[in-house]
Design a protein that fits this description.
By secondary structure, the protein is α/β, with parallel strands linked by helices. It has one domain: Rossmann fold. It is built from 6 helices and 5 strands; from the N terminus they run E-H-H-E-H-H-E-H-H-E-E. It has a 5-stranded parallel sheet with strand order 3-2-1-4-5. Helix 1 packs parallel to helix 3 and helix 5 packs across helix 6.
Length: 129
């Protein structure tokens, strides 16, 4: 299983340079070829940015809901508290520390992200391919 970071969705939805590779990867997750997890925290971040960009939120949520290989993980307050402590230990901001914490907790094999802040951790970072 792979943890999908927020920016993978944003690259696709906002038409950034990683849109093609994000689209291909997310299509494999959607079909169930790849198993992945996304935090509800990431989904809320995407929703807020889509709203500001005046891009439809409902189609995004329908795609997430219909993705056969995607688990949405709801963080608990204790998860978020642990991530807030972990952030200083690993030198990440809270949002990245929360992703890393969940990846560790769920035993993810990699964090799929364009964010190089995840480089050098015990869970490898991989860009969508």
């Amino acid at each position: 299983m792979k943890l999908i970071d927020t920016n993978v969705f944003l690259e696709l939805l906002l038409g950034k340079k990683g849109a093609a590779s994000s689209s291909a990867f997310l299509a494999r997750v959607s079909s169930g070829e790849e198993d992945a997890v996304v935090t509800h925290f990431s989904l809320h971040s995407v929703e807020a940015l889509l709203d500001r960009a005046k891009v439809g939120i409902a189609p995004f949520l329908r795609n997430v809901e219909q993705s056969a290989g995607l688990l949405v993980y709801d963080t608990s307050l204790s998860d978020e508290s642990a991530a807030s402590i972990l952030k200083d230990e690993v030198g990440l901001g809270f949002d990245d520390a929360l992703q890393y914490f969940v990846a560790r907790k769920l035993g993810a094999e990699e964090i799929v992200s364009f964010d190089r802040h995840f480089d050098g951790l015990d869970i490898p970072r991989a860009e969508p391919r």
